[in-house]
Amino acid sequence: MVRSGLLLVVRALVLLQLIPGILSWGKEGHYAICKIAERDCHDSSGHKDMCVAGAIYNYTKQLTSVYHNSGSEIRYNLTEALMFLSHFIGDVHQPLHVGFTGDEGGNTIIIRWYRRKTNLHHIWDTMIIDSALKTYYSSDIAVMIQAIQRNITGDWSFDISSWSNCAANETACPNQYATESISLACKFAYRNATPGSTLGDDYFLSRLPIVEKRLAQGGIRLAATLNRIFTPQPKISLKHVDKGVEK
Predict the structure, then answer these.
(1) What is the pTM of this model?
(2) Which of 32, 48, 87, 213 could bridge 23 with an S-S bond, Cβ 3.0-4.6 Å?
(3) Closest alpha carbon to 101 in 23, 177, 46, 22
(4) Cα(193)–Cα(241) distance, rounded to whole angstroms?
């Protein structure tokens, strides 16, 4: 993986995360249910694959089918597929995008972020990042991105391989990412965030490292997924195969 290209993807992913609602899939598809890792993935009407993981598989399949079958008729909007894939890989790394359906991933948990009335989902979508920008990064997104990049090439550099890989040589593995987010939602997002409560420094300072690492993981995994989609597949030489069966 080319490091400069990887960091460019991280930058794009962070920007996508900071634009609320961009390319939104709607309420039913914006978050996956808590059993997503068990492939129990459907909307309220029972339609399969209507979740973040289903979207990632869908757009990965579209891009892969065209790229690896160059002579076939193009049936998909590939620009749209690439943009949606990038957005949803970011989405699945936000813990409350795989939160509980009963509270719509924290959307119905009304609380205060310092003095501002909001909901828990919005806090994890934007407000933790906004507060970090103002507190630590001089309200400059470029400075925040550089800090995440330094962690990727520094403290987290030994984790990149494990973050990037998919089991069984899969092109995309969103269930793995969703499983991590489910755990983080339960351990960090929902904890101490009861309806009507006020969240301040204790919550912010303990959750910000989680948010920044998930942004980094999302960027690394998006880059790895794109590499698997667009890397040419090795071709078996028929000449060598013929030699193996010659009498």
Answers:
(1) 0.77
(2) 87
(3) 46
(4) 62
174: CB partners within 8 A, 6+ apart: 52, 53, 56, 57, 88, 89, 92
Contacts of 93 (CB under 8 A, 6+ apart): 177, 180, 181, 214, 215, 217, 218, 221
Total Cβ atoms within 10 A of residue 112:
14
Q: Can you tell me the distance from the alpha carbon of 75 to that of 77, in angstroms, rounded to the nearest whole number?
A: 7
| β-pair partners for 116 | 113
23 contacts 83 by C-beta, under 8 angstroms: yes
Q: Work out whether the CA dihedral 18, 24, 25, 30 comes out positive or negative.
A: positive
Phi-psi region of 23 (alpha: psi -120 to 50; beta: other; left: phi over 0): left
- Rounded Cα distance between 100 and 106, Å, is 7
